[in-house]
Design a protein that fits this description.
2 domains; 52% helix; 13 helices; eight-stranded mixed beta sheet; 14% strand
Amino acid sequence: MPKISVIVPMYNVEKYVRCAIQSVLDQTFKDFELILIDDCSTDKTVEVAKSFNDPRIKIFNNEKNLGAGLTRNVGLEIATGDYIYFFDSDDALIPNALEMLYNVAEKDQFDVSMSIAHFYPNDNEFQNFKNLNARIHHRGKMGSFAKDFKQRITEEYIMGSSSACRLQLFKRKFLDDSKIKFRNIVAYEDGIFWFEVLCATSNMIKIDKPFYVYRQRQGSLIHPKDLSGFRKLIESFFMCREIFLNLLAKYGEKDNYFVDNILLSFTRRIFWDFIPFYQRIPQKCWEIIESELELRYKDDQERSMIRIFFFGYFMEIINRQVYEDRSKRYEDRLKAIRSHVNDIIRF
């Protein structure tokens, strides 16, 4: 049995998947299986994957499109390793990534080992990621996790660490015993997964050594290019909001201030993804938000509170952009959105 199972969902990534696969095969840690699961791609993703000749690679195909989260669950059913690592098919790993995570986890038998830093290169830098001196994002502090539930959630979710599951190595037994799997939602499923892990254990360790090379590309789900993509994000937002509330109720958390801070933190994380699209066509985007509000919340007061909640964060983000960049472009966008806010309030 391999020590690590690397699980990779694939969907229409023929331009990027060769680099991703090669970065795993080039790892200094060799005792792994690489599970590639195609989620009904319509391009040559599978052909590229099959061009590799390595016995550690196992390729599977979903019968229907499931999305990244449920496809990772398929990988969990297939995996035979002692540890699980989830990897995205358009990103890359530096060569000692798995070795670093495994050694830290195995030494003191942690349920989870993770990095609090990752590389965030531009397209030119990505081509030479093994010798990368690109931007590094640091989130949180090195060391162990707080034992107290509220303190742990506050420090690691509200205040800091990345919610992306690609930065963590998970002990398989922990995931099985906790019954933690990815939810059936279109976007942010990894954020919910990480929050469930935080709720379930404090036996984790953080290291401040970047190993993950993240590719940000237009057209991916969290960076919508049309109204259909924006609608999927908004639907996922509301679904995640309810999941958070249900999880906190499961753990007996009734502190409204604490719950509100968790929801606010979650909102702040995701609004950065779709605010640029919202800025271009605010009226159309707001119609989508309103339709979701009408569908999910029957109480007028609750709908009004969530409207204020949304616009509060839209305004915070736009104002921050203006503060950081005083260009006329942002000033004009701010005026347009302020005008739109006033129209909505009058409505």
